[in-house]
UniProtKB/TrEMBL annotation:
A family per Pfam: SpoIIE
Domain PPM-type phosphatase stretches: 3-124
InterPro entries: PPM-type-like_dom_sf, PPM-type_phosphatase-like_dom
Protein name per Swiss-Prot or TrEMBL: Stage II sporulation protein E
Amino acid sequence: MGLVEENTGLLYYINAEHPWTVLYRNGVACYIEEELTLRKIGIPENEEHLVIKNFQMLPGDTIVIGSDGRDDLLVGKEGNRVVNEDQNQFLKRVEEGNADLRKVYEEIIKFGVILDDLSLLKVTYNPEDSKTKE
């Protein structure tokens, strides 16, 4: 869950035990998180540990988030059921698809068979677009 200040590109967000948030900048995808800091919302005493993180987006940056279905893929050959355990594979799919969600999805299904629900969302920071709205 997040909010972007349109004028500054500052992203405020929380990640409640979901796959890490991806930054796509200049053709390279990376995670903006390195550790789990918040359990799922609704777990007792979780409110005491709520931390709203922030990340400064630059013009042209894209944030990509998705459900765990993005990683839960059957990648084994016939007769050899192997489930992907490498979360960095998703970064490769984002790069191959240039953060275009339709293309990212196509790259995911080329890589493996989706085993879980899959939701993808992206936000691109274009400060020039917000100026034209004023």
